[in-house]
Amino acid sequence: MPIILPMDTHAMDLPEPRTGELEAAPDAHSAGRQQRFDRKMEDDRKIEPQDWMPDAYRKTLVRQISQHAHSEIIGMQPEGNWISRAPSLKRKAILLAKVQDEGGHGLYLYSAAETLGVSRDALLDALHSGKAKYSSIFNYPTPTWSDVGVIGWLVDGAAIMNQVPICRCSYGPYARAMIRICKEESFHQRQGFESLMTQMRGTAAQREMVQDAVNRWYWPVLAMFGPPDADSPNSAQGMRWGIKRISNDDLRQKFVDATVPQAKILGVNLPDADLKWNEQRQHYDYGAIDWDDFWAVVNGQGPCNKERLATRVKAHADGQWVRDAALAHARKQQARQLKEAA
Ligand code: FAQ
After folding, report:
1. Burial zone of 8 (CB within 10 Å; 0-12 exposed, 13-18 middle, 19+ buried)
2. Confidence check: pLDDT of 174 > 70
């Protein structure tokens, strides 16, 4: 167990000697434990860190939660690019708060992943060495101020659609982290929409700038929900375990259905010639997604993959002195407490 120090040390954990990541749960073959786990799944009850769980369930959660954490942290960059150039003090304050929120989401999620027995260092090593995935959507550039509004409207909108069902995830720490995260994402989406609405009420050049950003982000956002259900290797088991509650395609459809009326209110066109209401299905039909492009981006070939990773690695290296200082302080506090207790 890590040594948790009192609150005045900002709960800085002193690292334990590493004994290997993801050790197999003891007694994994015990039929009784497996049955209790299965019963919890059937009754839709939560699994908590101290509960026994199958190793594959643990690994799936570490995979998804850590990818999610990495996405939040890398996701600070595209909008962070505009903090120094936001068009007014009000927009700058909103953007600063939003980007800080995304950093906070990443930290909650790393903490949730750590409850599964994996260390923060190992998770960060995987990100920094390029082994870990993070969301494809953060590998696109933000050349104009409208991109910031469109990220709020569409990217945060997609994130909420995907993440609200995760509030009911079977793993307690992940589900609870998602409740707060979703509340904040909801504010993010509204501020993006409101910023775009303001731009659409402006000049013709501003309206064109918004439309151009929508044209560039719309398809990558649809792909962000993940591959079609038929090509999604993790979905079936993720749904059986109650980690995933709604499939990639169903979430994508819900997102399209919710976005079309919002685009009408904004006065922008969604760049899909095949988008039309299907009376029989009671849903919008939409065009074909370019999955080759999606996989190229996931596999490191997107417009900004290299830049995003390099920025992240540099920020981590630049912050080493802060971590060293915090650890030195925590060690001193601990030594003082031990001396006082003796
Ligand atoms: N990008 O079998 P599936 C945000 C991978 S946070 C990259 O369907 P699964 C907030 C997938 O990992 C956005 N890779 O996988 C914000 C798997 O590879 P693996 C992040 C992707 O796990 C807003 C392979 O493809 N949100 O936006 C992507 O059942 C604004 C096969 O896929 C989350 O992480 C992708 N888009 O479903 C921040 C939510 N999609 O691991 C800043 C939690 C799929 O086998 C600014 N995660 N892959 O090697 C999830 O809900 C799921 O993990 C999915 C993927 C739906 C992302």
Report:
1. exposed
2. yes
Tell me which residue of 121, 124, 116, 126 sits closest to 13, measured CA to CA: 121
**Coil, strand, or helix at residue 119?**
coil
Residues with CB under 6 A from ligand 1: 63-64, 67-68, 71-72, 75, 102, 133, 135-136, 151, 155-156, 159, 162-163, 224, 226-227, 232-235, 238, 244, 248, 298
CA of 276 to the centre of ligand 1 (A): 27
- 286 is written with which tokens? 């939409």
Q: How far is the CA of 92 from the centre of ligand 1 (A)?
A: 29
From 19-23, 228-232, 320-324, the region with the lowest mean pLDDT: 19-23
Q: DSSP letters along 214-250, please?
A: HHHHHHHHHHHT-S-GGG-TTHHHHHHTTS--S-HHH
> Model's pTM, two decimal places?
0.91
Dist CA 314 CA 321 (whole Å): 13
Instruction: From residue 294, give the alpha-carbon distance in Å to each of 17, 152, 230, 298.
Output: 39, 21, 16, 6
Q: What is the spatial distance between Cα 249 and Cα 72, in angstroms, rounded to a whole number?
A: 22
